[in-house]
Amino acid sequence: MNLSLFTTTLDFALLVKIILVILIGFYTIFVFVIFNNIRSLSNLLVINRTLGSPLLRYLSIFYLLISFALFIAALVIL
Amino acid sequence: MPNLYLDSEETVQPKPTVPDSTTAVAATPPPPPEVVTPGQVELKANEPHIFTCFHENPEGIHFQNQEADEKIILFLRHHYITTLGWQIATLLLLIAPLGALALFPYLNITLPIPLRYIVILGIFYYLIIFGFAFVNFVIWFYNVGLVTNRRVIDIDVDSINSKDVAATALSDIIDIAYNQKGFQQTIFDFGDVYMETQATKPNFEFLQVPHPSRVTDIISSMIVRRSHR
Prior knowledge:
The complex is a heterodimer of chains A (78) and B (229). Chain A is mainly alpha-helical. Chain A has helices at 9-44, 53-77, and one strand at residues 45-47. In chain B, strand 8 and strand 9 (204-210) form a beta hairpin. The longest helix of chain B has 28 residues, at 115-142. Strand 1 (45-47) of chain A pairs antiparallel with strand 2 of chain B.
């Protein structure tokens, strides 16, 4: 099965590029919301000072950075 | 078993150790004091670990508006077995693209996009899966019930965007009950604990918590103790 039956390969790639960049952009905003909520939750309740809330906070920062990096990569590479 | 309901002033004194005369003769020199390097993490003995869902007298837990003399007696979360659903879903989603990739040559499917698009798409997919597991874990992690020596606090995180925090004084609880339904709850010993408060206030519930009978015992004992004061 070849998906280029519906359009040319170039058009299809462009369509994928636009959709991917928009999706990753929206997803980065969503991750930022998650990051903010985890920050507020870790202010509300601190569970285990070594491996609990601080670890989740670091993970949320890491998650946000990776998402942002992917968004930049999608803009640059695609 | 240590007495949970001791006031903060009442502390249990450790028994003095008597040196044994037989071992005293060939006694080895005492070990040197342990040196704690700056990078070493100091862990308390009663500090709950990251997956704890039932802990009595925990240390290392603090909440907003905690008073200076307020001590946490009981720390509760949903039983860990309740997270099995999203854990299995995550695992299946993780291996799904690999299965699809293995099937592509047999189905004669060719994607008309360059490899770099597929790489970005793959990273994006796995980021979504990580996000799914991470959000579910955070929701489980912060869905906490606390019983202190003064009040009961119920923190409900329904989704990543909504949280509901409720607290009531122990003296306001007029009735407490628990139920365990079904095969899973009986096997893994978890269930729902319901606390009825005065009519104007909403009822409190700790859902799917481990050892509901023990939770009920502890809270009802504390209520009785307070009413006798």
